[in-house]
Description:
The chain has six helices and six strands. The protein is α/β, with parallel strands linked by helices. The chain has a single domain, classed as Alpha/Beta hydrolase fold, catalytic domain (Rossmann fold, 3-Layer(aba) Sandwich). The chain has a six-stranded parallel beta sheet with strand order 2-1-3-4-5-6, with helices on both faces.
Amino acid sequence: MKVPRVLVLPGWQGSGSTHWQMRWVAAHGYAVVEQHDWLRPLRGDWLMRLEEAVLEAPGEVVLVANGLGCHQVAAWASHSRHGAKVRAALLVAPVDMQTPVLSQALPSWSPVPRQRLPFKAVVVGSGNDPYCSLDEAQTLALNWGAQWVNLGTSGPVNGEPKLGDWPQGLALLTELLKD
Length: 179
């Protein structure tokens, strides 16, 4: 079986070079789904970019999303006719859109899609992430039909430089690539 292409979906404001996502891109040759505007993301624009990236891939894809990228995956899956091209998704630290600062800054991202995803998924969260409440992340995992992974209080997984290459996350991705 051919190895699927890994598409990396950074969240709001993108991922810097020390972020685990960009470290994975550099180390493993994964593809970043670039956005026109990282600072003022419009949901429709982001969904179109994901649709284009999935259709451009020669075969199956595995999605690796962080923060707002998790909501991008869920919204795309609820509208796209190409969900069968996605083998799996690793959804890390989905932002809690009920947080006042996020709901005000990202108005086009409400309501949050809560339909079951048409592919295997893993949602990862931690108990001390200021933008990803543990309860909301666990609820999203349940709604999306995803496996839930609680990192405890190991720190935010939304770009912390101390995570480095984040081997625990890479192990989760490796399992998704095997299936």
